[in-house]
From TrEMBL:
Family classification: Belongs to the TRAFAC class dynamin-like GTPase superfamily. Dynamin/Fzo/YdjA family.
Region of interest (Disordered), ranges: 506-527
Official protein name in the record: Dynamin-related protein 1E
Keywords from the UniProt entry: Cell cycle, Cell division, Cytoplasm, GTP-binding, Hydrolase, Microtubule, Motor protein, Nucleotide-binding
Gene Ontology cellular component annotations, sorted alphabetically: membrane; microtubule; phragmoplast
Domain GED: 535-627
UniProt xrefs under PANTHER family: DYNAMIN, PROTEIN 1C, PUTATIVE, EXPRESSED-RELATED
Length: 627
């Protein structure tokens, strides 16, 4: 039979661990509700000065909460009570001060005040950021209690108008969770019909299943009146019995009346009261603590299956996330080198998929050849270069002091060679365009390599080494394509000129076989040779020769570019990187595998959480078997 303590203690332990992990209230990227939310806790709700903090202190049996009139509790206080072995010293611990054990409870109170002010300033403002406090004591029952700011009706001096609503919203956010047990505090010296606590509890828990009605200040009721109507459930019926409480009055507090004394006085009050003596075994803060603890145990017992299933689901989720994040890296150089090469392979595979299809991007290279290059070739300024004026100028210059006699051989050569130079531009532009496509694909492939995500340093180095290789390929490609252009200039296609209709034939008899007799008649054709139509014909011949070369280059430049850049990128993109890695020492390899700190943090968080959930599962198993 698992004892009450072991069950609630277990939940407390889990909640505490959740708290330390920051695993409460969700919003940390885990999709399932957190374990904390699945576990029950007790929230104390009531109007300002109704006695909430006093009730908590009575339950704990210790004097440690800031108390008084006005708004004192300005941040939620999550109070975890851990029962320890008899004879052990009592101490308290704050989540925000994990190393410090408080044995002086006056200092605990001061720290609560200071920590409240740290967030809200010394104002009357409130904050929903909870303070977490654990108390370890043999005199407590295992419980998690949450002290909340009191509900108010009006804002006081120094508070914004919105505070009334803000407090209500904050309190509501705690009590509306189905796992929350509501400790609804109402003062007996006020009409229960005006109780803020009951009003809110009824809204969030209409059936009253999880609401415990607590009536404080019984000692302050007017003489001749009593609270039996409420305590006996006639005034307002709840599923659980009402509990009457007599806390220390302000005067007691001022006189430093000991909590133990106060508890005794409370017991005596009920035992000797003519109105309540018949109820005395079911009144008082000690009884309330036991009642809550018992209820909590029943709730937890009923929830064990769903808690276990939540834990199992979360463990599955965490484990799959761990797989996704990757396991921690091995320490020795061999394993590291192996991992780096694995990662390179994964990247290289994706890069090739981009080029060969399967992934987009490789088609943009074809775009360069099919679109950009032909357009660039078409747009070359041959019109201007082969204008009548320029042709005449180039030809005349080539002729020198003696004008050409038959065909302007030198003029042709010069015109063609200078025209061919223009092809360097589009050739180099194609090389560059493909270079940028490849670079972009490297960048994309790195981003798309899941396995690389955790290694930003390696990503950078891989990119740098790849860019270095691409740069080398570009240079090679540039040289090759320019060479293609130069080759065109270094030997002209004789065929072409052979096929040209010979002007001289039109001008007179066969020019090549001309005899001195014929040349006597040459004055007229010579005139013709320098006429506009003569130069126009030269321009048109050169132009069609250039057109023919453009056609050729349109085909050969892509071949050169693919050969030098694309094919090389597929074959040896990472060679440079491999050479570098091969020279690295163990320490440098480890540096390359430097993980993204955010990721490392996430993995650690995951691992810690996994550990927590697994140990929670073991604990719950143990407790349920013990039943
Ligand atoms: P909270 O604002 O709801 O947390 O209320 P506190 O616990 O701070 O109590 C407000 C004031 O009411 C304090 O001065 C307490 O001493 C006083 N008080 C609370 N409960 C009782 C009670 O049962 N009897 C008497 N006489 N005074 C009480
Ligand atoms: Mg209070």
């Amino acid at each position: 039979m698992a004892t009450m303590d072991s069950l609630i203690g277990l939940v407390n332990k889990i909640q505490r661990a959740c708290t330390v992990l920051g695993d409460h209230g969700g919003a940390d990227g885990f999709s399932l509700p957190t374990l904390w939310e699945a576990l029950p806790s007790v929230a104390v709700v009531g109007g300002q000065s109704s006695g909430k903090s006093s009730v908590l202190e009575s339950i704990v049996g210790r004097d440690f909460l800031p108390r008084g009139s006005g708004i004192v509790t300005r941040r939620p206080l999550v109070l975890q009570l851990h029962k320890t072995e008899n004879g052990q010293q009592e101490y308290a611990e704050f989540l925000h001060l994990p190393k410090r054990r408080f044995t002086d409870f006056a200092l605990v109170r001061k720290e609560i005040q200071d920590e409240t002010d740290r967030i809200t300033g010394k104002t009357k403002q409130i904050s929903p950021v909870p303070i977490h406090l654990s108390i370890y004591s043999p005199n407590v029952v295992n419980l998690t209690l949450i002290d909340l700011p009191g509900l108010t009706k009006v804002a006081v001096e120094g508070q914004p108008e919105s505070i009334v609503q803000e407090i209500e919203n904050m309190v509501r956010s705690y009590v509306e969770k189905p796992n929350s047990i509501i400790l609804a505090i109402s003062p007996a010296n006020q009409d229960i019909a005006t109780s803020d606590a009951i009003k809110l509890a009824r809204e969030v828990d209409p059936t009253g299943d999880r609401t415990f009605g607590v009536l404080t200040k019984l000692d302050l009721m007017d003489k001749g009146t009593n609270a039996l109507d409420v305590l006996e459930g006639r005034a307002y019926k709840l599923q659980h019995p009402w509990v009457g409480i007599v806390n220390r009055s302000q005067a007691d507090i001022n006189r430093n009346v000991d909590m133990i004394v106060a508890r005794r006085k409370e017991r005596e009050y009920f035992a000797s009261s003519p109105d309540y003596s018949h109820l005395s075994s079911k009144m008082g803060s000690e009884y309330l603590a036991k009642l809550l603890s018992k209820h909590l145990e029943a709730v937890i017992r009923a929830q064990i299956p769903s808690i276990t299933s939540l834990i199992n689901k979360t463990i599955d989720e965490l484990e799959s996330e761990m797989n996704h994040l990757g396991r921690p890296i091995a320490g020795d150089a061999g394993a590291q080198l192996y991992l780096i090469l694995e990662l390179c392979r994964a990247f290289d595979k994706i890069f090739k998929e981009h080029l060969d299809g399967g992934r987009p991007g490789g088609d943009r290279i074809y775009g360069v050849f099919d679109n950009q290059l032909p357009t660039a070739l078409r747009k070359l300024p041959f019109d201007r270069h082969l204008s009548l004026h320029n042709v005449r100028k180039v030809v005349s210059e080539a002729d020198g002091y003696q004008p050409h006699l038959i065909a302007p051989e030198q003029g042709y050569r010069r015109l063609i060679e200078s025209s061919l130079n223009y092809f360097r531009g589009p050739a180099e532009a194609s090389v560059d365009a493909v270079h940028y496509v490849l670079k972009e694909l490297v960048r994309k492939s790195i981003a798309e390599t899941q396995e690389l995500r955790r290694f930003p340093t390696l990503q950078t180095e891989l990119a740098a080494a790849s860019y270095h290789s691409l740069e080398k390929f570009r240079e090679e490609s540039r040289k090759t394509t320019v060479r293609l252009v130069d080759m065109e200039a270094s030997y002209l296609t004789v065929e072409f000129f052979r096929k040209l209709p010979q002007e001289v034939e039109k001008a007179g008899p066969d020019a090549r076989g001309s005899t001195p007799a014929n040349s006597a008649n040459n004055s007229a054709p010579t005139m013709d040779r320098y006429s506009e139509s003569h130069f126009r014909r030269i321009a048109s011949n050169v132009s069609s020769y250039i057109g023919m070369v453009a056609e050729t280059l349109k085909n050969t430049i892509p071949k050169a570019v693919v050969h030098c850049q694309v094919r090389e990128a597929k074959r040896s993109l990472l060679n440079h990187f491999y050479a570098q890695v091969g020279r690295k020492e163990a320490k440098q390899l480890a540096q390359m595998l430097d993980e993204d700190p955010a990721l490392m943090e996430r993995r650690q968080q995951c691992a810690r959480r996994l550990e927590l959930y697994k140990s929670a599962r073991d604990d719950i198993d143990a407790v349920s078997w013990a039943r």
